[in-house]
């Protein structure tokens, strides 16, 4: 099988049966001489992949032929998103916003305004478990663009930046943004999902009805593969072993998918592991036993942000939140003997038994 790997998920496709090269070539030439344009009439999975947002992306769609022009549009779209929402690019829109003094209005692009507004909506719904102003704390713990640390910050250092953290300190009206404090906005927990959605919209605008888009493990699927099967997604088991193993497989179409986990991005000090997932309420990495959350939503941006929020909440609160909002969610909770699975009824219907 061919695995497209990422930090939390990988897509499984069937490997094509191999034929002797000479026979394949001769057969193809003979058939195409008889049927003009036969290759273009056969639907197949076309793929385009590369690097973006510090990770990989893969776009697969069902078509009769590859499309170089569409590949370029995909690449250009990803460049535009990065230039708008990256904290690693000094002259990105987001970097400019982060340097803008408190109280000074800044006009931003419609895409950035949309993501900021969606972020705030999810922050309100999750009572601050999702907070895109947590950036100063992320940086302090060594998980942002300032680089790694191997030692936990002192309480005085945490106190020094916590008064800048709070999603309500960033006001959005249309495309006008005003920070109430010297807030630092980090969209890493939603930008990849938004990028997936934007590429999905691009494909649909081109008349493509079946596709699978993935950026750094966040995905969106629509339609069916050429053989009529749904797209199959493997949820990774959060082991510490070098090899990557599968916990569950789901079959999906017409849905956005995101997984958040704390089992790969962390550092250790004196035997204590510090996760990259920061709780905005405490200013510290999460310390509960929830290790992985997979969320299915109509859009990948929503799934991306909610997966992060539920990682912050912990297993009990996250499951209750999912039940209350009737979400399709899969949780993996660490136990003394392994991992306990918890899933909502909505998620169960996607499982491949």
From TrEMBL:
Q: What class of enzyme is it?
A: transferase
Decide whether keyword Aminoacyl-tRNA synthetase is in the record.
Answer: no
Per UniProt, the keywords (alphabetical) are: FAD, Flavoprotein, Magnesium, Metal-binding, Transferase
Q: Is Transport tagged as a keyword?
A: no
Give a Pfam family name.
ApbE
The protein's Enzyme Commission number: 2.7.1.180
Cofactor(s) listed: Mg(2+)
GO MF terms listed in the record are: transferase activity
Q: Which residues cross the membrane?
A: none
Q: Which InterPro entries match?
A: ApbE, ApbE-like_sf
Catalytic activity from the UniProt record: L-threonyl-[protein] + FAD = FMN-L-threonyl-[protein] + AMP + H(+)
Source domain of life is Bacteria
Family statement drawn from the similarity comment of this UniProt entry? Belongs to the ApbE family.
Q: What is this protein called?
A: FAD:protein FMN transferase
